Amino acid sequence: MRPARALIDLAALRHNYQLAREISGAKALAVIKADAYGHGAVQCAKALQDKADGFAVACIEEALELREAGISAPILLLEGFFEASELALIQQHDFWCVLHANWQLEAVLKTPLKQPLNLWLKLDSGMHRVGLCPTDYHHAWQQLIQSGKAAKLTKMSHFARADEPDCARSREQFETFAQATEGLSGEVSLHNSPATLAWPSFKSDWVRPGIMLYGATPFAQAQSQAARLQPVMTLESKIISVRELPIGEPVGYGGRFVSIKLTRVGVVALGYADGYPRHAPNGTPVAIDGKPSRLIGRVSMDMLTVDLTDLPQAGLGSRVELWGKQVPASEVAQYAQTIPYQLFCNLKRAVRVYATN
Ligand SMILES: *Cc1c(COP(=O)(O)O)cnc(C)c1O
To answer: What is the value of pTM for the model shown?
Structure first.
């Protein structure tokens, strides 16, 4: 059996969820959209369901998958519905629903409902992607209240730059939110992971942690709360071939790495078809039997090559960690000029193996 696999530590997931709650002092919707950022939405939901105040996903298809797997906790649809016809299923399964655009608001107002919905009215406080304009917000709120269509109405917004602790934009967004929602009763939900970790002075009744649940830091620099996270996914495989290269010999496609000394090369059974970033440069960290080493040569579809020169005990069958407990995914992401979110979401083919303690 091919040894490429992603170990998923569900105890670490539970630890990180608890941390989100503890830091915020708020209720937490575990964001498990996009198959829980590649970690498996159903398995993650099951691991959290005795603890979690609720879950959040991108769309009704993802929410239905959870209900079909027996998850009965609240599930928020972060982008609401894409067509008004979804409102029937939203009622039937009791999904909570974001309204982020005027067309969604109008659809709710004019669709007859069997029972009122749990609605989250989203404000565009400065990210300028989705959400109602500050000038429209009060009126929309009043319309929903008067329509009787909202069993519960939550005030919501989203930060564009919460991962930059020195950036004034988050405070500006918070102030815009405070002004636009002034005088409207109801709970508040503002915080994604970086806001939960770095901006605890803004208050949410509901935080919406995503990446932090999976134990990766959303920050480019060290951050004290993020240091308390435990990595959930360990992507690993094994060395399937070893060779020694004399000085001046290239490795792999395009000869991107050329040995400048006698070099021992290990070939690892894992490639970009498993989700490892093809753009990872020479020098990207890996761990081999627990010891630090580096990627050398271009990443292939099914294999990649690592430097064994300083690890004489390593060889055929050695375990190679591409990211996880020893090699932070955020570090690999920086080398590959991406973010850990994308590394996780790209995971495919490598089998997921779950551990609960
Ligand atoms: C994805 C998402 C989150 C979670 O973001 P993280 O940065 O992963 O914590 C929170 N809120 C909304 C609206 C989202 O779309």
So the answer is: 0.97
